[in-house]
TrEMBL record:
Keywords: Metal-binding, Nucleus, Transcription, Transcription regulation. GO terms for biological process: DNA-templated transcription. It is found in: Nucleus. It comes from Penicillium cataractarum. This is C6 transcription factor.
Length: 443
């Protein structure tokens, strides 16, 4: 689309279309590395982001976002805010409320099938609305608040699993949605999880009204099995984007499992074995979350991987490290948690957010607790010289010079893919703890 516009000698753009072009350019810059920005644009990445952000904001203002009926302007705003939350999560959270109201004014929350729209417009409006739902969920998680959108507020259906190349404005009938991977599959999986888990009450609030634990377990396992059979089993894991989509889906399901178990964790009521299971699964989640961000074949989608924050998982690991003794297991957990925490700090993600403040306090407690345990085992221990302590909790007189620890992956271990095809072909129920297959044939 951008290429076609640039080929014109004097492109005549409507303001709605221009706002969408600017939002696409902004997302491209955000997803680029500093080296790519310098080599392609000849400027520092921060300068490019600042200039592009200003351009998007100006075009959205000229396009009259709050008063327009043009869905292109709304699309531009959603894409812009999905990227903006990296740099200003609080502003993105506040402006998401405006986007939701604009979408309701344009009746995007009503399914086009009930409004007499053609299949193309119906499908595009579904994709737009559900991306707004995802934006609302992500921004609410960033700020530690409830979502503004609830399932009773809309009847827009989840998008069909159809590639965008198979959609056209003159389409009269939608072709049957295939199983397996398309360019909208990851969004659909997130929509399914949002509908069946997030809005159904699987959250971290122990005082919230929820279904009984066995019922939640049943819903979670049923959803995991359906996603596995309908989508993941049909993936070609030799294709990087399909492998990455499968990993993200599995990690999201595993995180939901951890959250579900945590809701059932009350002092004095949970056996130690169950608590150990939660801890082990949390460590595995963070391990693979770190891994996919550094996996070379999927490096072009590193920005996508980083958008799936594991804050609740890291917070649980840090809280456990405060009370668990020093061991090989806690050493690995400490390295993984601090690596992810250091990355968040390096990227300046949500430094003033509510969750970041809580995580900083947990990290400080875990650091002090770990230092005392190490000192009690072998005399005085200078943790600043040997541990990857986040810079936000170290005094300026003790700068951290050691880089974050590298994730040690033994490629000769069972984390290889000797049994990948067999695992995917098995008819056995989905098992949350069987995460070894995640590293796949790409390593």
């Amino acid at each position: 689309m951008i290429h076609d516009v640039c080929k014109q000698a004097k492109p005549k753009r409507e303001i709605a279309f221009e706002s969408l072009i600017q939002a696409i350019c902004f997302s491209a810059i955000v997803s680029a590395t500093p080296e790519q920005c310098m080599s392609i644009l000849g400027r520092d990445r921060e300068v490019c982001i600042r200039n592009s952000r200003l351009a998007v904001e100006q075009t959205l203002k000229r396009a009259n976002l709050t008063g327009t009926q043009d869905t292109q302007v709304l699309q531009a705003a959603v894409l812009f805010l999905l990227c903006l939350r990296w740099f200003d999560s609080r502003l993105a959270w506040a402006q998401t409320a405006i986007v939701i109201r604009v979408a309701q004014r344009q009746r995007v929350h009503r399914d086009g099938q009930f409004c007499g729209l053609n299949p193309f417009n119906t499908e595009m409006r579904r994709r737009l609305w559900w991306h707004i739902c995802i934006l609302d969920m992500l921004c609410s998680e960033d700020e530690g608040t409830d979502t503004q959108i609830r399932p009773e507020m809309f009847d827009t259906k989840i998008p069909s699993n159809i590639d965008i190349d198979n959609l056209a404005p003159d389409l009269n009938i939608l072709s049957p949605a295939p199983s397996g991977f398309t360019d909208i599959t990851l969004c659909i999986i997130q929509c399914e999880m949002m509908t069946n888990l997030f809005w159904a009450g699987i959250n971290l609030n122990p005082d919230s009204t929820q279904s009984p634990m066995p019922e939640r377990e049943s819903v979670l396992c049923s959803l995991a099995t359906r996603i596995e059979e309908q989508y993941l089993r049909e993936f070609d894991l030799n294709i990087p984007i399909q492998w990455l989509t499968a990993v993200i889906a599995r990690l999201s399901l595993s995180k939901a499992r951890v959250v579900s178990l945590l809701n059932n964790s009350k002092p004095g009521e949970v056996p130690i074995a169950t608590n150990d299971e939660i801890f082990q699964m949390a460590v595995e989640i963070v391990k693979f979350a770190n891994l996919i961000q550094k996996n070379e074949p999927t490096a072009r989608w590193a920005w996508l991987c980083k958008s799936y924050k594991q804050r609740h998982t890291v917070a649980f690991i840090l809280s456990e490290l405060c009370i668990r003794p020093i061991s090989a297991e806690t050493d690995q957990a400490w390295e993984l948690a601090t690596e992810m925490y250091n990355q968040w700090e390096k990227e300046g993600y949500a430094q003033d957010g509510v969750l970041q403040t809580t995580l900083s306090r947990l990290m400080e407690r875990a650091t002090i607790s770990r230092t005392r345990k190490l000192e009690s085992r072998g005399g005085r221990h200078d943790y600043r010289a040997s541990l990857p302590v986040p810079r936000s909790i170290v005094q300026e007189s003790y700068p951290v010079t050691a880089p974050p620890p590298e994730l040690d992956v033994d490629h000769s271990s069972t984390l290889g893919l000797e049994g990948m095809d067999d695992l995917l072909d098995e008819q056995s129920p989905f098992t949350f703890s069987a995460m070894d297959w995640l590293v796949g044939p790409l390593l």
